[in-house]
Response regulator aspartate phosphatase
Amino acid sequence: MSTGVFVYEVVMQQLNDFYQLMLSQQLIKASELKKEIDEKIEQIKDVKEEEKQHQNLLLYYSLLDFKYKMLTDRVSIRKDSFDVMNDSINETTDTLIAYYYHSFKAEHALLFSNYNEARRQYEEAESLLGHISDELEHAEFYQKYAVLHHHISQMLTSIEYTNKAKTIFEKHAGYEVKVASCENTLGTACIFLKQFEKAEEHLNRSIDLLKKHNADKLILVVRHNLGLLYATQNLSTLAIRHLSEVTEKIPTHFKALFLQAREHYKLKETATAGELIAKGLKVCQEVGNEEYMYHFSILRSLNDDESVELLEEEVKKGITYFKDQDLWDYVEEYSEVLAVRFRKLKNHEKVSDYFDVCYEAKQKLLSKGALK
């Protein structure tokens, strides 16, 4: 066996081990192994080799490097972070690596709220999943696909996929953190279905599991969702208590910043809300998250008590985006805000216009089983 073939096989096995460590959320061990892999990859890059085997390995490394950043340093990921891999995929790419490519590209799209692209990529990944025998890989796909369905307000489908994933993870020792992640997804789905008691049970169960594994970063993810749970019930003070812990430890967590700002706005604490809105907008501009720029801009208009004309301008821009992304729950929410505002001004024509938009959104949500 030549030295080149031996090195290839060693690195490929290390990459497989690296992925399994990430899959089971053993990030300290994954970090240690990554250092060894990085050194070997630098040596391989120096070799001028265009063979299919060589290109597959480098693409596999790039994909897993992206996955590692998603788990450990998500805020460093930009809209163009996946571009370097787009030119590497072709008809000669190994099936498993092609599956990872589409699955991770979907995660990247989801990170930037590009739900249509995320759905397309997950469908591509699903078409390749049948060639993969490892049931843990199937569980990972189900869990990620469940998150997408949560974002596009298909909560019952989200719950169905999450339960499929959870059933598999529970059969395997060492995947308790993944079970906790499933509990978190179930909890957030229950929030949107207004099953608040069940939501709290799932989220607290998730935190209990994560505490046993000292998964402090993931606990903050769940704490954000506890904040969402209490915010949805207008328990603003309780929501702020959870959300402020998240934003203090992760100042770039724009979703928590938005929820916290909105709760301060509800309490008429406009100065604090304004500071959080400014921070959130800055973060969204830096990372390129278009969806939350619209959320923050509308909230800023409300918090600053701008004229209804200026508020309408912001809402119309947001509604156009939300319709394009099939986010009909937000179309309903913000058109209702305008309808109520115009009703106070006795502008009945505008009231009628925006209640029509509300009705359209309700029908869209009803058609996909997502009506809240």
